[in-house]
Write a structure and sequence with these properties.
Elements (H helix, E strand, L loop, with lengths): L2 H6 L8 H15 L10 H4 L6 H13 L7 H15 L3 H11 L7
């Protein structure tokens, strides 16, 4: 959760199918016991490092299965989330995390 990150990004409030789906995928990461604190997506989801390079790094780590403490289901959930985030614009990425963190009402 990084309210300051969202504010510094200009408080984007994009609510569309892509951002709502991303928020659901983020929820799936956090609700999966295999993921721990964000699993393979930790630096993206917990630290709000939303640049392509950060997402690509996490995808590569997940594809290589570098962490022994993250189970297969958790790895797959993280990959689905990261790959979807990669398709979003930067404003949509910030919006998706803000939706998941309830900075923006889903309604």
């Amino acid at each position: 959760m990084c309210y300051t990150c969202w504010v510094e990004a200009g408080k984007p409030r994009i609510k569309n199918k892509k951002t709502l789906w991303a928020a659901e995928l983020i929820d799936a990461v956090y609700s999966n016991d295999d993921c721990g604190v964000g699993g393979y997506a930790h630096i993206v989801l917990d630290d709000w490092n939303l640049d392509d390079d950060d997402i690509d790094f996490c995808i590569t780590q997940a594809e290589k299965e570098v962490y022994d403490n993250i189970g297969e289901q958790g790895r797959l959930v993280c990959l689905a989330c990261l790959r979807h985030l990669k398709t979003l614009t930067m404003e949509e990425r910030f919006s998706a995390l803000a939706l998941q963190d309830n900075f923006i009402a889903v309604e």
